[in-house]
Amino acid sequence: MLSHSSKILIDTYGLNPLDVLSLLGRALFFRFLCDRKIIQPNELAAICPHATVPGDCFSNVINSVATCYWLDETFNGDLLPFSSSRMEVFELADAQTDGKLFHHLRAILEKWKPAGKHFQRQIDWGDLDFAHIPIGVLSQVYESFSRVWDAQRAENTSVYYTPKNIAHYLVDDAFEGVSKKKDAQILDPSCGAGIFLVLAFRKLVAARWEDDGKRPDTRTIQSILYKQLCGFDVSESALRLAALSLYITAIELNGSPRPPKSLKFPKPLQGAVLYNLRRPDERDAKGFVLGSLRTDLAEEFNGRFDLVIGNPPWSRLKGENEDAKKENKSHNDSFSALTRRILVDRGVSDIAGTYRNPDNNPDLPFLWKSTQWAKPDGIIAMALPSRIFLKQTPSGTRAFNTILRGLEITGILNGSNLSDTEVWPDMNQPFMLFFGRNRVPAANHHFHFVTPHFEKRLNDKGRIRIDFQSAQPVATSAVIKDSWLLKTLSVGTTLDVEVFRKLDELDWPRVESYWQPPFSGEGYNLSPKQKQDNAGFMTDLPNFISPKEGRFSVDVSSLFKFGFTTAHRPREPELYSPPLLIVPQSPGASFASARSYLLREATVFSKSYYGFVAHGALDFSCISLLHLITHSELFRYHVLMTSSRMGAERRTFLKENLEKFPFPAIEVFSKSQRQQAIELSKQLETAPNKPWREINKFIFNLYGLDKYDRQVVKDTLAIAPPYKNARDQANSAPAKKDRDAFYAELQCMLAPSFAVTNESVSVDEIAITRPDILSPWHFFSISTSSTCVNLTQAAQNKLVYKIAEEANKTGCSRVIIHGHEILLVGIVGQYRYWTLSRARLCALDILRHHLDMFPLRKC
Known about the structure:
Blueprint: H1 2-12, H2 17-35, H3 44-47, H4 61-74, H5 86-97, H6 101-110, E1 113-115, E2 118-120, H7 137-149, H8 151-156, H9 164-176, E3 186-188, H10 195-212, H11 218-228, E4 229-233, H12 236-252, E5 274-276, E6 305-310, H13 322-345, H14 349-352, H15 363-373, E7 374-385, H16 387-390, H17 394-406, E8 408-414, E9 431-437, E10 446-450, H18 456-459, E11 472-475, H19 476-481, H20 485-491, H21 494-504, H22 511-514, E12 520-522, E13 533-534, E14 566-567, E15 580-584, E16 597-599, E17 609-613, H23 620-630, H24 633-642, H25 655-659, H26 671-686, H27 692-702, H28 707-719, H29 724-731, H30 736-755, E18 761-765, E19 777-784, H31 793-810, E20 814-818, E21 823-828, H32 836-849
Parallel strand pairs: 3-4, 3-6, 4-5, 6-7, 8-10
Antiparallel strand pairs: 1-2, 7-9, 8-9, 10-11, 12-17, 13-14, 15-16, 15-17, 18-19, 19-21, 20-21
Helix pairs in contact: 1-2, 1-7, 2-6, 2-12, 4-5, 7-12, 9-10, 10-12, 13-15, 21-28, 23-26, 24-28, 26-27, 30-32
């Protein structure tokens, strides 16, 4: 309703946006007071003459002015101020809207329902009691309001509200790390409408209540608000809503909210708790402003806070014109200089001198600045983009390695599987929840890394499964050594890390070692509105387009000529020379479709493709091998494990992902292997039945991967790619044959450990008479030939029912229960947990941690 009214009052009637926010916010606050019975019906007339119901208090100019006067006197003048006097604002708004303003204000108070530009008085939300404003509602109002008021500024300054479930998790987990909770000082340096401050406020009041043994009174609650909370922002509208949120929360938490005058706040929040850090000369600026990143910010905030928490701006600073680009460069120079100074202060000056903030992104400067605001050993918790650790460019890797060396990360919850879901509505970027402690990490430091899976049933409700059993303790030194490690763990398991390490340790040259510009690169860029270069050499050449689905070869004679004489970036002629391999950036979801095309005639191609040309010692067999590599399971796996795009923000991969793939040294690429590569490549182009099995076997053999490695690759490719078919497969219930295969593999892995005592091991599914009660779990037992099983079927059913009931409360994906010489194991009924690779992981866990349940018997 608030969003509906703000849009009409601003767009249709042209009211001052900040006044609209104050008008609607005051009506909302008044309704809150009425619904909470802080204002009694018999007190309305004293507030506003002749008022008998709350709606009367905002029904015309005179009544509205009287009501706002009462609000200001009873609470304080900081509550949603107007641009001029109360009478002037209401009279002007009344004239501009022809009295329609009061329909919108009464709608809030009388619970009317929006219907176009009007309201329906019959409404079906009797259960919506504004005695409690749901946490996060005002943050959503702020985002919606910002896009109505100034869409460009909202985009440039990253106005995106944080969903309450995300904010709850960040605050709850971060607050646990604070040592002296009741006295904690908490800062949100980009507070928006205040959702993190509201949640932190509640935590502080609860901590004081627990410590004192009694409910905090009005004076104590207000003392916490004014002395322990702090928020920065550059948006006046956001700060007004943040103030309203905090006022409402303070009243909600108060056990004695009557009479209203007893709730009067001692002074305005702005300037004491909330700070507008937009300079006066930046009031009309549309782009990014430094705000709390300013160098002249008061040092009184440094080293003050036990917890710095929030969701800082993520959006890359983009310039639409030369002036904007120049300003953004200046901002990025400031970001880099700020970080370098902080790194020197933290004793890591060896990396400070060359540090450069990557890609004009403002999020990392907020993270580094937080180390100045936080106390030594204080907690830093932020919602940040996952690209910070996913990005594999040299600048991206250096930036994350700098964090690893300069700040003690305690945990990362990686949300790269959750973009475009209801977990964070309208968020199309991968995100993470970052937790750290304000100190330089020890050399042997480890942090926890967990990646919730995409689970449609849960995610559609805005929920996620956080399986702490799968949280990986990761050494910072390992991530610095292998920049791909966190991406690999985000889509796979420790088995995938082992496979990838095996590839990494081949110590072979990379594709980029052999294919350098101008013999490799992205295709031409037309961009007719940009500066043009001569492309005359391309005019009469065929212009590549991907053939129809199912075709693996290209009839060059059927292609149209390029036809243009200029292009923004035509590239060099060598890039289009034969023999030429053309690789699409977006390979598509189908593994059986063409992933690259081999051309034997000069052909131009656009920037949607990458090209690789045989030249010098790289003969046709080498380009044929590259052709096979791009179609292999191993290459798709490698891209999934390393690409900052694939499986995260986008469904494409970068040229660097192919360039980083290991390629056998030419001198050890034998004659028979060369001939086989040429033959398989030709079959791939022409054979009606594609030689997929032979191609994968050839590549796996070439790269020295055994049957277990191949199974890991196969399983990960079945469930981890960011496509619907893979996600559906991962979430599907495991068929009986899949479960039986899992049990057989598990038994095979466990058997050698029991064979030494001449025992055999059995893995048996527990038949459930009421499967509905266990959904989505499956249970099985592990016993030996010496085990005396004394549980009846009924007893087993009763036991696993209780186990499933408790397990569903925890978010875990697997439970192992110790019986008498028997293990009961339950696994969530999703195929991703029932692959053969997962059976190996289950076996390893049992052998390491549960084998002592089976007594060692004499042979």
